[in-house]
Amino acid sequence: MLIQPSTLSRRDAMKAAAWALAAAAIAPKLAFADEKAVAAEIKKLYGDKPMASGKIKLDVPEIAENGLVVPINVEIESPMTEADYVKTVHVFAEGNPLPGVVSYQFTPACGKASAATRMRLAQTQDIICVAEMSNGTLHTAKANIKVTIGGCGG
Amino acid sequence: MTTKPTPRVRVPAKATAGEIIEIKTLISHEMESGQRKDAKGETIPRKIINKFSASFNGKPVFSADWFSAISANPYQSFFFKATESGEFTFTWKDDDGSEYTSKNKLTVG
């Protein structure tokens, strides 16, 4: 009877550890957006319209040491004339608490559809860019960024 | 960080007609994402600049909707095709309703 209390407490300890592990595995996933959240955002904006690849140059670092300040430069191939220009560009993050990063509205007066800013990334993830041209066609591009230190206060 | 946001804009003073110039802007702002918690575990309310816009001689040129994922002291650069002399107006709109503006002249010739 000397052994039993110790086995019991060991079992309890294992159970507790298992719960802690499960909680740790589930909790962070719940708090973040994912592919589905980004897809839902895009669907809200454009429905099921087909999207072509190409035309977008998504310039981001392959590895971001600091997730608090990650440079992002988007450039879209376009003559930027009254007849043919880039209207809007949306950038989404698949692994952030919220999917939205930035939305740009360009005009032919820009001369060039290119803009740069800096964003926060919570973890290693994919960045999705959707560009809408003045004739309504859509283009999309994706880039993966490895984040060493997340940028969400963690 | 409760200092008043100060915009800083870099626009070339002169350009030739038809030249595409780059405009760089920066504004000091904490961009509180609304995702962080304070020491008591309560969520710190979101307070970010949610809109940046640029116009030239009153005509809109470029604008950006910023979300929580934009870094503190947000930077934004974009391009402009110079055709005539005039003045840029840059506006930053804060969640609390405040607006910060900067005006910059451009001479074309």
UniProtKB/TrEMBL annotation, chain A:
InterPro entries: SoxY (IPR032711), SoxY_sf (IPR038162), Sulphur_oxidation_SoxY (IPR016568), TAT_signal (IPR006311), TAT_signal_bac_arc (IPR019546). Residues 1-33 form the signal peptide. Pfam families: SoxY (PF13501). Residues 43-152 form the Ig-like SoxY domain. The keyword Signal applies. PROSITE patterns: TAT. Keywords: Signal. NCBIfam families: SoxY_true_GGCGG, TAT_signal_seq. This is Thiosulfate-binding protein SoxY.
TrEMBL record, chain B:
InterPro entries: Ig-like_fold, Ig_E-set, SoxZ, SoxZ_dom. Coiled coil: none annotated. It comes from the Bacteria. This is Sulfur compound chelating protein SoxZ. It comes from Bosea lupini. Residues 10-103 form the Sulphur oxidation protein SoxZ domain.
